[in-house]
Amino acid sequence: MVALSIKQRKPFVSDQQELYVSIVRTASELSRSTERFLRAYGTTQIQYNVLRILQGSGPEGLGRNEIAERMITAAPDMTRLLDRMERDGLVVRTKDREDKRQVATTITPTGKRLLSSVEGPLMKLHSEQLAALSISDVRKAVELLGAARDGNLRAL
């Protein structure tokens, strides 16, 4: 099926290659539609991910590297991203009083409001994006993708 969507004429070399291309293509399509959706709220998937991470981190916040480690997708330049988000009033960064090299980032009330306004509609979008799958299919896909991630980590 993915061969048709990418207009591939030759068969895949292996089932694993077809699965890999299918995962990447599906992730790209889901990501594009989610990015368009979030643009209407004045944010991006990466910014949304940072805000969710910070909301769950507690009042002490997190350092730049800790945020980067928890990201769903890698942010090319976390410092610039946080600069932009701070300028937009979504986060605030505070230097540690004892170790000035350490900077904690926390979510602001503006960032919390943005998360709150996006969360319900975004969950609805995800339900619509994956409506062709039953709950059982979704659970199985989560399990299989987890196994694939674990296998990838072992292969590194």
Automatic annotation (TrEMBL):
<keyword id="KW-0238">DNA-binding</keyword>
<protein>
    <submittedName>
        <fullName>DNA-binding MarR family transcriptional regulator</fullName>
    </submittedName>
</protein>
<dbReference type="InterPro" id="IPR039422">
    <property type="entry name" value="MarR/SlyA-like"/>
</dbReference>
<dbReference type="InterPro" id="IPR000835">
    <property type="entry name" value="HTH_MarR-typ"/>
</dbReference>
<dbReference type="GO" id="GO:0003700">
    <property type="term" value="F:DNA-binding transcription factor activity"/>
</dbReference>
<dbReference type="Pfam" id="PF01047">
    <property type="entry name" value="MarR"/>
</dbReference>
<dbReference type="GO" id="GO:0003677">
    <property type="term" value="F:DNA binding"/>
</dbReference>
<feature type="domain" description="HTH marR-type">
    <location>
        <begin position="16"/>
        <end position="150"/>
    </location>
</feature>
<dbReference type="InterPro" id="IPR036390">
    <property type="entry name" value="WH_DNA-bd_sf"/>
</dbReference>
<dbReference type="InterPro" id="IPR036388">
    <property type="entry name" value="WH-like_DNA-bd_sf"/>
</dbReference>
<dbReference type="GO" id="GO:0006950">
    <property type="term" value="P:response to stress"/>
</dbReference>
